[in-house]
Design a protein that fits this description.
The complex is a heterodimer of chains A (about 260) and B (about 400).
Chain A lengths: L14 E7 L5 H13 L5 E4 L10 H12 L4 H11 L7 E4 L2 H7 L1 H11 L3 E3 L12 H6 L3 E6 L6 H7 L5 E4 L15 H11 L5 E4 L5 H10 L2 E4 L1 H10 L4 H16 L2
Parallel strand pairs in A: 1-2, 1-8, 2-3, 3-4, 4-5, 5-6, 6-7, 7-8
Helix pairs in contact in A: 1-3, 1-11, 3-5, 7-8, 9-11, 10-11
Chain B lengths: L6 E2 L2 E5 L2 H17 L3 H13 L7 E3 L1 H7 L3 E6 L9 H14 L4 E6 L3 H12 L3 E7 H6 L1 H9 L3 E5 L6 H14 L4 E3 L10 H9 L1 H14 L5 E6 L3 H7 L9 E9 L10 H4 L1 E5 L1 E6 L24 H8 L3 E7 H15 L5 H13 L8 E6 L7 H7 L9
Parallel strand pairs in B: 4-14, 5-6, 5-8, 6-7, 9-10, 9-14, 10-13
Antiparallel strand pairs in B: 1-2, 2-12, 3-4, 11-12
Helix pairs in contact in B: 2-4, 4-5, 4-9, 5-7, 9-11, 10-11, 14-15
The chains are: A alpha/beta (about 260), B alpha/beta (about 400).
Chain lengths: ~260, ~400
Amino acid sequence: MEAKRIEDAFKNGKAFIPFITAGDQGIDKTEEYILAMRDAGADLIEIGIPFSDPIAEGIVIQEADLRSLEAGTTTDDAFELVARLRTKTDMPLVFMTYLNIVYFYGYEKFFSKCEEVGISGIIIPDMPYEEKDECAGIAAAHHVDVVSMIAPTSEERIRTIAADAKGFLYVVSSMGVTGVRSKITTDLGSIMKAVRAANSTIPAAIGFGINTPAQAAEMAKIADGVIVGSAIEKLIAQYGKNAAQPIYDYVKSMKDAVRSV
Amino acid sequence: MTNPEGRFGDFGGQYVPETLMNELIHLEEAYNHYKNDPAFNKELNDLLNNYAGRPSRLYYAEKMTKDLGGAKIYLKREDLNHTGAHKINNCLGQVLLAKKMGKTRVIAETGAGQHGVATATVAALMDMECEIFMGEKDCQRQKLNVYRMELLGAKVHHVTSGSQVLKDAVNEAMREWASRTEDTHYVIGSTMGPHPFPTIVRDFQSVISKEARAQILEKEGRLPDAVLACVGGGSNAMGMFYNFIPDKNVRLIGCEAAGRGIDSGETAATISTGKMGVFHGMKSLFCQNDYGQIDKVYSISAGLDYPGIGPEHAYLHSIGRAEYVPVTDDEAVNAFEYLSRTEGIIPALESSHAVAYAMKLAPQMSKDQIMIICLSGRGDKDVASVAKYRGITVDLES
């Protein structure tokens, strides 16, 4: 199936964007869980290619990455997973991984494979704006958007990053690493204002620390979408190979919370 | 040597999450200001001299020289610094810089514990809060250093994620820094990590070769033929090499930890076995598998047990200015015992790697040639590990 573009994910009310580590519980299970998330209303899915040393992740996703690597998951398995999903869904899919994974695979080979299997974008947390020339050009040539990130410490950098953003903008809600937080204290209102002033058309989604439907609704008031990773990986850690129903229920509750905000 | 993009040739760069970018930019601005500030330099030199005990001695190892029968061997005695290693040079510089930047808290990673001890020491001196990240396996190998850091008032986090050694301690320290930059400086202990760290650490360590170059000219009236240093991340080696880089006739030799051998799968020799990659904020050489997953590495020496190498070393290697050689655990332990018996100096296991290669190289050189070995640290911390390696039980409680 021809994959939809990232911007299509933001046409169905506020977007809900779940993250899942490829190969945790096996690639077959990842496929099943992604389809469950789609059925529950997910608009865009981030597929994590596991890395041995994910420095932007909290303990939940670190452990998911290690479980997946111990099971033998490779970058080629992640491409295989997307190719299989493309026979069943046209929803936009993006990769999330660390630069060494992409660098080592070879930029040209990696992004031409992305284009071939139907990956619409990529998030690389350890490739900041200053280093995007590593592969942004090659990615663009293969119609893959390199998603930029804005952090609570970005300040005057917001203007440069947002003005140049492709696909959507990933706004990091909190200092530190991914993981469930009971409270988000960053002044996201001012950050979103600066983002909109710099780029009025790019969709912006908030991630890091979001867990409950109430938090998601709160974030959806000021953003175009909400990203959740650790809460989903926690369900997988808890339910193992039987996580499809809990994931479906959770994603549905989150999408329902943000849809009409 | 650093170009405007924070690179050494293709190596280096700033591959960190956006959360840390402004902090790195502020650090670079502050460093560029203070490195040329006479008051800052006066304060730092005062500390280096009166607190750390610099200049460190350049000692002619006469018995070792005669025994090996080749080149004249000098030891640059960084082991005589306060806290027993070269690490204090960088810690005094960075913590003083952090203080000038208005920080009140420092964090650091540590492998063998030497950098953690040095950071905790300077933090105590400068009234800074201090937290150290150390892999659980290293905590076990270096229990006394854990207690030493606690004595100095630091909190030691035992890192249980990943392979529980130095790289995992760096991961955790970076995660901690990303969660709290406002009052916190991350004192990176080696010539690694994102720009500007490789440059800052090299500059603060370059006092080693600045002194050694002047000392050898005074003693011998000429430059050495070779300088040797052990390399993990590469800070004592960069410090030892730096002022000799323009002296094209001085061989620069970095001694890597080969562990049980470079083909054994249990090694930390990055130049011998690593490939280009991007990790811990820098583009450099790393031990990694066919998909770019970072390898678990191994060395008997906790301070060299790191899967990467600083970007400036990767650059010096790429242009052929420096040579890098692997040294096994066995060779290092032999050198540890050899220097203890021959000169009455117990070297750190890390530094023993350089001593081991000197034992091979010196006999191949002529008697009118000169080499300097950077004795980066003292070996007291390693006595228990070496005893264990030799199958000797030492009961510390009796």
